[in-house]
Amino acid sequence: MKIYSTISGRRFATDLREAKQRGYLAHLPHYNSVFKYLESEALTPYLYELITLSAAPLKSIESDFAVDSSGFSTGQFMRWLDVKYGTKEDRRQWLKLHLMVGVKTNIVTSVEVSDGYAHDYSFFKGLVDRTAKNGFQMKEVSADKGYLGASNMLATLQHGAIPYIPFKSNSVPHANDYGAKSELWTRMYHFYALHRAEFLQHYHKRSNVETTFHMIKAKFGQRLRSRTLTAQINEALCKVLCHNLCVVIQSVHELGIETNFATESAA
């Protein structure tokens, strides 16, 4: 609520008192207590688990997925010397959210938080593996050229899905100075080269992950207001969790799905 309404924690105490009066809270906490919990590393795994559980009701709907990342700025700044004599041009520090989303409802099925300069490629396999572990039956996974690589293609194929990752201009289907190409790489390269229109028809589903980031930032802000790194990570995960709850509520009304988180958790 503090992030959504953009008011201070002290003024948010009024909303806490109202929640207590309506029976939503059994005990009225001090607003600083909420901040202390947000700064706790012990909270992080629970947020990851809650995001997983919040996506569970849409297992029967989502089969095509998209992967991408986006930055969230913070209120912290690095030293001028690091900017002047280093390789970083932006003085504001920021974090990256790596998401895998279902392209039909924009539900986030797996998430990872990293520093703002982490390369996207290495997060692909973990996002795919966790989505499959959470019970989603994958048929397609779309991602941009930053994720192009034999290991990411193989990770997708191992879960029964087809990777739709476009090739770069210098990609070749045969062996080169970096070694021989796998059969999977060669087959996907020829499919991309000879059936470009059909390939792009599947690949363009990737735009839905851009829509997901827009939904999160438009509703819950693109800036992380917390000060410490742990609190910023937890705040970013809270944005994703709130987004998932909004998607589930919308899906209940538009798609008629039934939600029973107790059953999904036991499964």
The number of distinct β-strands equals 6
Would you tell me the overall average pLDDT? 87
Structural class, from helix and strand content? Answer: alpha/beta
**Helical fraction:** 40-55%
| Count, helices | 12
What does this protein look like?
The chain has 267 residues and is an alpha/beta fold. It folds into two domains: 1-38, no CATH class; 39-266, no CATH class. Helix content is 48%, strand content 15%. It is built from twelve helices and six strands. It has helices at residues 2-5, 9-21, 31-38, 43-55, 80-85, 124-133, 150-157, 183-194, 196-203, 207-220, 229-254, 261-266, and strands at residues 64-77, 92-102, 108-115, 140-142, 162-164, 223-224. Strands 1, 2, 3, 4, 5 and 6 form a six-stranded mixed β-sheet that branches. The protein is globular.
Main attributes?
267 residues, 2 domains, 12 helices, 6 strands, 15% strand, globular
Give the structure's gist in a few sentences.
Helix content is 48%, strand content 15%. It is α/β, with parallel strands linked by helices and 267 residues long.
